[in-house]
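Weekly structure sync, notes
Attendees: PL (lead), two postdocs, one rotation student
Agenda item 3: pending single-chain targets
PL asked that the sequence for the first pending target be pasted directly into the notes so everyone works from the same version. It is reproduced below exactly as submitted, 326 residues in total.
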Amino acid sequence: MSNNSLKVIRESKNGIGYSDTVTLRETKNAITKATLWKIPHKNHEPEPSLKIARYKNRWEDLESDSPKSALTLKGDELNNLMQFLNDYYELLKIGVGKYIKADSLDNNLALQLQGVFNNKNANEIGSFLVKNSILSSDVTNIVEFCRREEALNDFKQALTEDRSEAYWQKWFEDNDWILGNEFTRIIDERDIDTKNIADHLVETFDGFVDIVELKRPNGQLKFWNTKQDHNNLIPSQDLIKAITQTQNYIQSLEEEMNSAKMLKRIGNASIVKPRATLIFGRSLDWGDEERKAFRILNDGYKDLTILTYDQVLARARKTLNLAKDR
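Predicted structure, written out during the meeting:
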């Protein structure tokens, strides 16, 4: 139907108002139709509902009792769907391929989809659509981009709050992509030996094991000492303790390089000259003096890289923006 055609609201045999029916897809063996209904209720005013149904032939209509499959969205479900389309349709229309495959919505899948929209969980909706191949690969990339952007917003918000170290361990575990392309996965095991437990053991892209150690960005931990030494900024005692602890982890991990038990726990990865990344403190208010001192500090370690939470966030944001511009 063209935009200039007359749009008609009809009435069913039971007195239910409904819009013109639109054909979404027609194949040799089935036809998919959709319409808007205004379903009456005993306790409140009638509300519009969207009904999508698939039939064996073109002559059956939406009042048929025996469609091959059917899905009705009403109330919040329909509102959430319209908001979802409003947020993403124009973005996808720019040139990212197919949005939804109508022929993938069998009856069981349709019921699951309805349940997912009931939950109002964006991550669950995205996961469901990808898992069931409803989204194309291009759309999958956009969904992942949006998920990562939302994660970075959560990261930024958490930096303004006094979150525990356990919170940050879980956040990095759920968003291991933020560690960069040099790491392919976070290993399930954290124990190096009976005395040393790292925040994360990670596998590098070339199959070796490294360490990521986290210290909470807030609280009483300071990056620089309040007093300078010969007009030079020096690490705080908190940072020195964290560096010492991380270096001990490196040494302990290297001592396990020939341990059959350790190698079994970490899977296919190997332990050879492990390195560590220590994420510690904030740097949002640093000036040239602090940045210079930080450069010198990092240059003093051959197997350790120190990053602040603000630097991790800035690096991830830049990487995400580069992916967006492609």
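Discussion points:
- The first helix runs from residue 76 to 93.
- The mean pLDDT is 81.
Action: rotation student to compare against the earlier draft before next sync.
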